[in-house]
TrEMBL record:
Source taxon at top rank: Bacteria
Any GO CC annotation of this UniProt entry: plasma membrane
Origin species: Sphingomonas gei
Keyword Nucleotidyltransferase included in the entry's annotation: no
Transmembrane segments: 34-56, 68-88, 94-112, 124-143
Protein name per its UniProtKB record: DMT family transporter
Length: 145
């Protein structure tokens, strides 16, 4: 069960991204504003995580001071992602947009793991990992056709 739960949550997270992207794109199209749509999306997400923090966790806010400065900007990456895919999906299609983002994520992840960047444990780049990245990149090309 220790490895099953993270796998299940990762799969659900992937399904959420696949659903979130067209939802945000439709909201941007309906409102005529990418930025309003992203704001609404993040407002809802913020309300959910704050409620979960208050109801479930309640870790004191002061503990966040212990995090390194670069750890404080994670939300900026998420905001860019939401806005970028909401913009790209109607123009490229959902499948191509998401395969491009997955390819970029996996490529960056292999590099981050290899060098132990951003506080990660080092995991060497191996031939199977390179083949996996190559297959994802090939998938991008196939989805694009």
């Amino acid at each position: 069960m220790q490895t099953v739960l993270p796998i299940i949550l990762a799969i659900i997270a992937g399904l959420c991204v696949a659903t979130q992207t067209p939802s945000n794109a439709m909201l941007a199209r309906s409102t005529g504003s990418l930025w309003l749509a992203a704001s609404i999306s993040f407002g809802g997400g913020t309300a959910l995580v704050v409620a979960a923090w208050l109801l479930i966790d309640r870790t004191p806010l002061a503990t966040a001071r212990q995090a390194p400065p670069w750890a404080w900007i994670g939300g900026l990456y998420g905001a860019f992602f939401v806005a970028a895919v909401a913009f790209a999906a109607p123009r490229l299609g959902l499948a191509l947009t998401l395969t491009l983002t997955v390819a970029a994520q996996l490529t960056a992840a292999v590099i981050f793991d290899h060098f132990g960047l951003l506080g990660l444990d080092r995991t060497a780049i191996t031939l199977p990992r390179l083949i996996g990245v190559g297959l994802i990149l090939t998938g991008v090309l196939l989805v694009r056709r």
